[in-house]
């Protein structure tokens, strides 16, 4: 396996940043994956005099470990870390060489303070754009703490293992042989699950803000930057920085940037936010908002933050179908990300619920790897763009059912079928399959507000042209509002509008 010229040139440049020697231990057999893995390792070794390789017997074959010279760092790649995981490999080489990871000091202290033996294993697919965050976070923990080890396992290379554990969503993380968590997790979230998160009292003692932004997506980041540039005390409180954009694969309509990916855009947003000394409080979910002399925001952790003005930018989440079996079989055949979880259904039968652009794009992508795709659309006609429909109907392994209502997702320990009803005739039909991908739009994250601010019948916060709500001092921006369109660039603009509106409110009050 040879790297293409562009990737090879980039890798050569990155490896020049290595600070010390690295030893790669390889466990390989005679199979094709092992041979490709050996070719990759040999090519990496040829690019730097600081990297050596030796054959070894690891717990999985094919696999290889990345270590400081003479020391076991606990980082193992089982399979070939290309695709989205190639960056994980590069970072592992740099960090094992002694180059410090780009992590805040308080997180480093938390990691180093963990006591005990923690053996993490993460099942990934190389097309998953959520997986590298988890892999890289656990690799960092392995580098910084000798009691922690981590193995990345490519599900395509270890199909039997994936089947035996019923892994039907990636990333899926196991700790000491027991299921730990699934889906994107940041380093902060992993540490919180281990019980090392900061105490809520640290938040409760904060001085009041001039502007407090609730939510860390594009609109929240934009609002915070615009507020901070006015020289006022600004904070962001968010469950996770980046919001739903972290789950977005390709972005091709962000003006002036021909193509980027969600995690890359979020990393740039966070870096920009940090330039302004904004107080970013992660892993915090808002529970209640109340207008008093100041506006009080109570968090689920129990802490109460106060601010002169608040900008709500809590975004939206995937809409659930709300039928029996959906919640029971989530990550057991019910999925929401075809890019991440699609490869786990290679050669199987799946359904896609939803005939809009996202649903039809998912069906087209899945048709290239699964045996058959059944598309279910509630309305009499598909809502997707004509060019997507034309592509869909050209595929031989896709069946489309329009004007149908999903009744139930069936299964025992995992999905085995879906039942739907023809809305015109009332006839019921059941299709046997192994996976269901839900793609039916978004619902705003505003339930926690109750009747505090005016919301539309869809739950969207009603705002005026300044981003103001019906509550003085409370503004809103992004996908949680009644904006006509839900787009990243529109969310950013509305965040800036809300921040300028909030600043104008502070001047006048």
From TrEMBL:
<dbReference type="InterPro" id="IPR012081">
    <property type="entry name" value="Alkyl_hydroperoxide_Rdtase_suF"/>
</dbReference>
<keyword id="KW-0560">Oxidoreductase</keyword>
<dbReference type="InterPro" id="IPR044142">
    <property type="entry name" value="AhpF_NTD_N"/>
</dbReference>
<feature type="domain" description="Thioredoxin-like fold">
    <location>
        <begin position="124"/>
        <end position="193"/>
    </location>
</feature>
<dbReference type="Pfam" id="PF13192">
    <property type="entry name" value="Thioredoxin_3"/>
</dbReference>
<dbReference type="InterPro" id="IPR023753">
    <property type="entry name" value="FAD/NAD-binding_dom"/>
</dbReference>
<keyword id="KW-0274">FAD</keyword>
<dbReference type="Pfam" id="PF07992">
    <property type="entry name" value="Pyr_redox_2"/>
</dbReference>
<dbReference type="GO" id="GO:0005829">
    <property type="term" value="C:cytosol"/>
</dbReference>
<keyword id="KW-0676">Redox-active center</keyword>
<dbReference type="GO" id="GO:0051287">
    <property type="term" value="F:NAD binding"/>
</dbReference>
<dbReference type="InterPro" id="IPR050097">
    <property type="entry name" value="Ferredoxin-NADP_redctase_2"/>
</dbReference>
<dbReference type="GO" id="GO:0000302">
    <property type="term" value="P:response to reactive oxygen species"/>
</dbReference>
<comment type="similarity">
    <text>Belongs to the class-II pyridine nucleotide-disulfide oxidoreductase family.</text>
</comment>
<feature type="domain" description="FAD/NAD(P)-binding">
    <location>
        <begin position="209"/>
        <end position="493"/>
    </location>
</feature>
<dbReference type="InterPro" id="IPR008255">
    <property type="entry name" value="Pyr_nucl-diS_OxRdtase_2_AS"/>
</dbReference>
<dbReference type="InterPro" id="IPR044141">
    <property type="entry name" value="AhpF_NTD_C"/>
</dbReference>
<dbReference type="GO" id="GO:0050660">
    <property type="term" value="F:flavin adenine dinucleotide binding"/>
</dbReference>
<keyword id="KW-1015">Disulfide bond</keyword>
<dbReference type="GO" id="GO:0102039">
    <property type="term" value="F:NADH-dependent peroxiredoxin activity"/>
</dbReference>
<dbReference type="GO" id="GO:0032991">
    <property type="term" value="C:protein-containing complex"/>
</dbReference>
<keyword id="KW-0285">Flavoprotein</keyword>
<keyword id="KW-0520">NAD</keyword>
<dbReference type="GO" id="GO:0016668">
    <property type="term" value="F:oxidoreductase activity, acting on a sulfur group of donors, NAD(P) as acceptor"/>
</dbReference>
<protein>
    <submittedName>
        <fullName>NADH dehydrogenase</fullName>
        <ecNumber>1.6.99.3</ecNumber>
    </submittedName>
</protein>
<comment type="subunit">
    <text>Homodimer.</text>
</comment>
<dbReference type="InterPro" id="IPR012336">
    <property type="entry name" value="Thioredoxin-like_fold"/>
</dbReference>
């Amino acid at each position: 396996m040879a790297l293409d010229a562009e990737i090879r040139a980039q890798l050569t440049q990155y490896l020049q940043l290595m600070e010390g020697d690295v030893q790669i231990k390889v466990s390989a057999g005679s199979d094709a994956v092992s041979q490709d893995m050996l070719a990759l390792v040999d090519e990496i070794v040829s690019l730097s005099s600081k990297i050596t390789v030796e054959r070894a017997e690891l717990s999985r074959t094919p696999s290889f470990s990345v270590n400081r010279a003479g020391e076991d760092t606990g980082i193992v790649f089982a399979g070939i870390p290309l695709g989205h995981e190639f960056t994980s490999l590069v970072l592992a080489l740099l960090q094992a060489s002694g180059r410090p990871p780009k992590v805040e000091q308080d997180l480093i202290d938390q990691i180093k303070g963990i006591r005990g033996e923690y053996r993490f294993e993460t099942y990934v697919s190389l097309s998953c754009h959520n997986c590298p965050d988890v892999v890289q976070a656990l690799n960092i923990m392995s580098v910084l703490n000798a009691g922690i080890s981590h193995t990345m396992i490519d599900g395509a290379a270890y199909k039997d293992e994936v089947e035996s554990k019923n892994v039907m969503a990636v990333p899926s993380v196991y700790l000491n042989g027991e299921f730990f968590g699934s889906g994107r997790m940041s380093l902060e979230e992993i540490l919180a699950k281990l019980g090392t998160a900061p105490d809520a009292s640290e938040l409760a003692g904060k001085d009041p803000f001039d502007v407090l932004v609730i939510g860390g997506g594009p609109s929240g980041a934009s609002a915070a930057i615009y507020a901070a540039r006015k020289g006022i005390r600004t904070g962001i409180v968010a469950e996770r920085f980046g919001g739903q954009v972290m789950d977005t694969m390709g972005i091709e309509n962000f003006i002036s940037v021909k193509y980027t990916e969600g995690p890359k855009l979020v990393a740039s947003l966070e870096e920009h936010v940090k330039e302004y000394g904004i107080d970013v409080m992660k892993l915090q979910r808002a529970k209640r908002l109340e207008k008093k002399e100041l506006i009080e925001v109570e968090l689920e952790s129990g802490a109460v933050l106060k601010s002169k003005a608040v900008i709500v930018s809590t975004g939206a989440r995937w809409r659930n179908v709300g039928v029996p079996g959906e919640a029971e079989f989530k990550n057991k055949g019910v999925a929401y990300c075809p890019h991440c979880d699609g490869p786990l259904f290679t050669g199987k039968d799946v359904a896609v619920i939803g005939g809009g652009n996202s649903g039809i794009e998912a069906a087209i992508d899945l048709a290239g790897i699964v045996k058959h795709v059944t598309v279910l659309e509630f309305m009499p006609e598909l809502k997707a763009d004509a060019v997507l429909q034309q592509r869909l109907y050209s595929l031989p392994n896709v069946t489309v059912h329009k004007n149908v209502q999903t009744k139930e997702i069936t299964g025992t320990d995992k999905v085995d079928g879906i039942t739907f009803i023809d809305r015109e005739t009332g006839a019921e039909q059941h299709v046997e399959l192994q996976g269901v991908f839900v793609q039916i739009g978004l619902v705003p994250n505003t339930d926690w507000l109750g009747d505090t601010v005016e919301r539309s019948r869809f739950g969207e916060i009603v705002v005026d042209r300044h981003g103001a709500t019906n509550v003085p001092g409370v503004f809103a921006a992004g996908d949680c509002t009644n904006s006509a369109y839900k787009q990243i660039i529109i969310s950013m603009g509305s965040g800036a509008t809300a921040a300028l509106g909030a600043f104008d409110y502070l001047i006048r009050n």
